[in-house]
Design goal:
The complex is a heterodimer. Chain A is α+β, with helices and mostly antiparallel strands. Chain A is built from two helices and six strands, in the order E-E-H-E-E-E-H-E. Chain A has a six-stranded antiparallel β-sheet. In chain A, a hairpin with a 2-residue loop joins strand 4 and strand 5. Chain A is globular, with a radius of gyration of 12 Å. Chain B is α/β, with parallel strands linked by helices. Helix content of chain B is 61%, strand content 8%. In chain B, helix 14 packs antiparallel against helix 21, helix 19 packs across helix 20 and helix 28 crosses helix 29. The N terminus of chain B is likely disordered. Classes of the chains: A alpha+beta, B alpha/beta. Strand 5 of chain A pairs antiparallel with strand 10 of chain B.
Chain lengths: 88, 680
């Protein structure tokens, strides 16, 4: 039923939730993110995504500031319900 | 403080005198230092880890004749060698073999915290888990059954509310008991996910008989698969060429193993907490969410930061300036007077050395303490509530222009109090280049000593416009900081950008004890570094300005200043101002004292400021102030710059860069004013 779309984390609007599907930054990158709670398969919610500057995300009950460079290496799956136009 | 409580399960009575070493581990922001302080009180020793710029804290406590040494390990999210802190923590556990590791977790973000536990359990030390901030978790609607979690993990789990000292004595009693009976430790360890089980076994087989003690093959194999650079380098040096290349092939084939290992750990965590944790349904709005609507908002957050900034400075100077003045008049000057009278029969040179050299230097140190204490208290308060990281997040946009990110804002902000803790505070930055750049930029933040010079001298020369000129000069510093940052970012540090990842912990009520510790640490850093060095160098400057005599105009210092007159003339300054600048190298506020001596008329009741106002033109004054604000860092700051960078080259680079900038600014300001015909 639910169609899922893949996109990069920095393209999501605030308030959207997604599931992390890939980390494209090498081993050191992945292991650093893992310690902060971000791993493949985890839920992530974008709290803020300003045009310039860092994102603010909520993952495993933790608020984390992520630089745009970091967010653009995190591939996520967004379910249909979470498309921007579907968010009130 | 916990020692009177009898042990319920008395341990091995045959070793009542045994020393037990406890490693205190945990992720950042879990209240670990609060617990460390509760356990050890003032029996602490603070230093550095050998060869590292990471703070090492150790403390001790006695329980019924048992001596426990508690080593506070650096806060780390995981144990892969991404940072110096992580290397220190795991090296300590592997090489120093503590009897027990106490891991503190934040109960309100339990799953993320247990990631560190998953890593700890692969290392050879028994672990006790302390669940701190149980009250915060409850407040978030998260309900945890510690005994259910303990049963799942197969290790002791103690609930804690460290801010109210709940559970801490039980935690240490449990740790002591486990240290006495390490054989009883049989935890449920996380296992690697199915697809990589075979390759792990293969790597381990290839490692057999090559891994020296105290390392263990399974841990080394796991870290290899995770791509841990330090372990990879080690193994390469242990193994013969052939064996290493077989491993390298395997690792290459399973490059994605790191993702599975991380997800595998979180799957294990999910299984462990399933029965023990009741999580609220999503969608409820917490206090943190509500406060963050303003605090991290791109516009409101910036305005709030500006308001906080103003408040901190207003508070610092309103509260501390009178105390500082009082100390100066009623303690330092009284002491100087008393010493002069008491030593009336001693050789005059000796009296002069003690009164002006030693007490003069010590006086500067003492009178600066109130300002620093108030400033650091305000800052520690903001930090402890969780606000300061939000400020760092808001500032991240601007810090990016300088090639830094938000985290650098914290140490730079500290620099308004004193540059010494600012340079040391750069330790919070993960990347080597970011840390170095922050250290190089920190001296451009005008410290309280320079702000004081502004407050004192601008009214003398600029009357009504004093506040405007002061703001202008502070802005000049900020502008230069930005320009230097951008320039270095595009030249020396080009392309060296670290990923910005920073946790924003929940807001909470500040804890007085941890604020106290933070203020003490920062002030002590100033006293220890600045105190000793200022004292030493102020004696040297005293000697240079007293010999060969008879008065300061004929001294070595004056001769040196006079030899620099050609440079001074470009900036409109006479030798006295040059000497004042040189003496500001000892400590910025020395500039005032030196001007005081050199422009003194000897007439009673006529201060040096009046003399200066009469003979110094506003253009010269402006140039002098601009140079003072940008001049080379004080000697204490230079000392910590070297200590933190471990490089004389970078330290010298920073000093020379500032010297060049300051002198250029002086020339531009003075010649510009002359050209425009203003204030000459």
């Amino acid at each position: 039923m639910l169609k899922q779309q893949k996109t990069f984390l920095d393209r999501l609007d605030p308030g959207m939730r997604a599931v992390v599907s890939e980390l494209r930054g090498g081993r050191g990158f992945a292991s650093r993110l893992a310690g902060m709670g971000i791993s493949v398969g985890c839920q992530i919610e974008v709290l803020q995504n300003p045009a310039h500057g860092s994102l603010l995300v909520l993952v495993r009950d933790t608020r984390i500031a992520l630089g745009r460079g970091v967010a653009s290496k995190i591939l996520v799956r967004v379910s249909d319900r979470e498309q921007p136009d579907a968010v009130e | 403080m916990q020692s009177n409580e009898p042990l319920k399960h008395a341990g091995n009575p045959t070793h009542p005198e045994r020393n037990i070493v406890v490693g205190l581990a945990g992720q950042p922001n879990v209240g670990k230092s609060t617990i460390f302080n509760l356990l050890t009180g003032l029996r602490q020793h603070v230093g550095n880890w050998p060869g590292k710029t990471v703070e090492r804290k150790e403390g001790s406590l006695s329980r019924d004749g048992t001596h426990l040494r508690i080593v506070d390990l650096p806060g780390t999210y995981s144990l892969t060698a991404n940072s110096e802190e992580e290397r220190i923590t795991r090296d300590f556990i592997v090489h120093k073999e503590p009897d027990v590791v106490v891991m503190i977790a934040d109960a309100s973000a339990l799953e993320r915290n247990l990631y560190l536990l998953a890593e700890l359990l692969v290392l050879p030390a028994p672990v006790v888990l302390g669940l701190n901030m149980m009250d915060v978790a409850e407040g978030q609607g998260i309900h945890i059954e510690p005994h259910v979690l303990a049963a799942a993990l197969g290790l002791p789990v103690i609930p804690l509310v460290a801010t109210r000292n709940q559970g801490v004595s039980k935690l240490i009693a449990t740790a002591e008991q486990l240290a006495r009976e390490p054989a009883s430790f049989r935890p449920v360890r996380p296992e690697i996910a199915e697809p990589h089980r075979d390759v792990l076994a293969q790597v381990r087989t290839l490692l057999i008989e090559h891994v020296p003690a105290p390392y263990r093959e399974d841990w080394i194999a796991l870290k290899l698969l995770e791509g841990d650079r330090e372990v990879t380098d080690k193994v390469q040096s242990w193994l013969p060429e052939n064996d290493w290349s077989s491993i390298a092939v395997l690792l290459k084939e399973h490059e994605d193993a790191v993702l599975d290992i991380a997800s595998g750990r979180y799957d294990w965590i999910a299984r462990m907490v399933r029965a023990a944790v009741m999580h609220p349904s999503l969608g409820q709005i917490s206090l943190t969410d509500r406060l963050d609507r303003i605090a991290v908002h791109p516009l409101w957050g910036l305005l709030l930061l500006l308001a906080m900034f103003t408040l901190v400075f207003w508070l610092t100077f309103t509260v501390a300036a009178p105390i500082q003045h009082w100390l100066d008049v009623n303690v330092v000057e009284q002491l100087q007077g008393w010493l002069a009278v008491t030593l009336a029969n001693a050789p005059p040179r000796l009296v002069d050395l003690l009164v002006h050299g030693v007490l003069g230097g010590a006086g500067i140190v003492v009178t600066f303490v109130p300002i620093l204490v108030v400033f650091f208290t305000a800052l520690a308060f903001l930090e402890d509530t969780g606000y300061l990281v939000r400020a760092a997040y808001v500032m991240d946009r601007f810090m990016h222009l300088l090639g830094l990110h938000g985290k650098s804002f914290l140490p730079l902000f500290l620099g308004f109090g004193c540059n010494v803790p600012a340079v040391m505070g750069a330790r919070v930055i993960d990347s080597q280049s970011g840390r170095l750049l922050t250290i190089l930029l920190a001296p451009l933040v005008p410290c309280s000593a320079r702000l004081l010079i502004l407050a004192l001298l601008t009214p003398v020369f600029f009357g009504n416009q004093a506040v405007l000129v002061s703001w202008g000069l502070v802005s000049l510093n900020m502008l230069v900081l930005a320009v230097v940052g951008i320039a270095l970012n595009h030249t020396v540090f080009r392309g060296q950008h670290a990923a910005f990842i920073m946790e924003l912990p929940l807001y909470h009520l500040p804890n007085l004890q941890s604020i106290g510790h933070s203020v003490w640490n920062n002030t002590w850093a100033f006293l220890r570094k600045a105190g000793t060095i200022i004292l030493l160098v102020s004696i040297i400057v005293w000697a240079l300005s007293s010999f060969p005599g008879p008065d300061v105009e004929q001294s070595y210092l004056a001769r040196f200043g006079q030899s620099l007159t050609p440079i001074g003339q470009l900036m409109g300054m006479d030798w006295r101002m040059i000497v004042a600048l040189i003496s500001s190298f000892v400590a910025k506020e020395n500039a005032i004292a030196t001007l005081g001596i050199l422009y003194a008329t000897g007439e009673e009741g006529r201060g040096f400021t009046e003399t200066m106002a009469a003979v110094v033109s506003p253009a010269t004054a402006l140039s002098f102030l601009a140079v003072t604000m940008l001049f080379i860092p004080c000697v204490a700051t230079v000392a910590v710059m070297h200590q933190e960078t471990r490089s004389w080259r970078w330290t010298l680079f920073g000093v020379l860069l500032l010297l060049l900038i300051a002198l250029s600014a002086g020339v531009i300001v003075y010649q510009g004013a002359r050209w425009l015909g203003i204030g000459v």
